[in-house]
């Protein structure tokens, strides 16, 4: 018959404490890992939205000045752009150019909310991209 000894009880207690320590350490490591995964996902969304805004602006480079406002609004109604919630505002203005007088210009502002999923809550301030164009002079 094996009789319980005092040293076995202490050893079992030490093992229990060690297991609790490792469980807490693993739990903490998993929480830190999950936090960094969430941050990486947010940064990927920010990068994707920045690229979306810049691509929209690039598509307007070859558009004539007279069609710029309507074309920018048409671009934001495309399904891929609309799904991201990108909005555009156009503000025409006159600009004084010293030797030749006044020139028409337009300021386009593209705004994109930062959400992890469509219709979700925003996790950061919206991104904006500005485009200024002056009327071509012949």
Give a quick summary of the entry.
The protein is of the alpha+beta class and 138 residues long. The chain is built from 3 helices and 3 strands.
Can you give a write-up of this model?
- The protein has 138 residues and is an alpha+beta fold.
- The protein has one domain (9-134).
- Helices cover 49% and strands 28% of the residues.
- The protein has three helices and three strands; from the N terminus they run αααβββ.
- The protein has helices spanning 6-59, 68-75, 79-83; strands spanning 87-97, 101-115, 122-134.
- The chain has a three-stranded antiparallel β-sheet with strand order 1-2-3, with helices on one face.
- The chain is rod-shaped and about 105 Å long.
- The mean pLDDT is 86.
First-to-last CA distance? 108 Å
Please list the strands of the largest sheet in the order they lie side by side.
1-2-3
Q: Specify Rg, calculated over alpha carbons.
A: 29 Å
Please provide the ordered H/E string of secondary-structure elements: HHHEEE
Shape: rod-shaped
Break the fold down into its secondary structure elements and pairings.
Blueprint: H1 6-59, H2 68-75, H3 79-83, E1 87-97, E2 101-115, E3 122-134
Antiparallel strand pairs: 1-2, 2-3
Describe this protein with a few key phrases.
three-stranded antiparallel beta sheet; alpha+beta; single chain; rod-shaped; 138 residues
């Amino acid at each position: 018959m094996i009789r319980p000894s005092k040293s076995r009880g202490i050893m079992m207690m030490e093992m229990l404490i060690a297991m609790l320590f490792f469980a807490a350490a693993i739990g903490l490591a998993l929480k830190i890992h999950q936090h960094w995964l969430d941050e990486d996902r947010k940064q990927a969304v920010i990068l994707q939205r920045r690229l979306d805004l810049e691509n929209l602006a690039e598509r307007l480079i070859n558009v004539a000045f007279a069609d710029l406002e309507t074309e920018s609004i048409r671009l934001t109604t495309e399904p891929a752009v609309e799904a991201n919630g990108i909005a555009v505002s156009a503000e025409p203005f006159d600009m004084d150019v010293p030797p030749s007088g006044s020139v028409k210009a337009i300021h386009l502002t593209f705004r994109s909310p930062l959400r992890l999923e469509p219709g979700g809550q925003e996790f950061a301030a919206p991104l904006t991209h500005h485009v200024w164009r002056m009327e071509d002079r012949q």
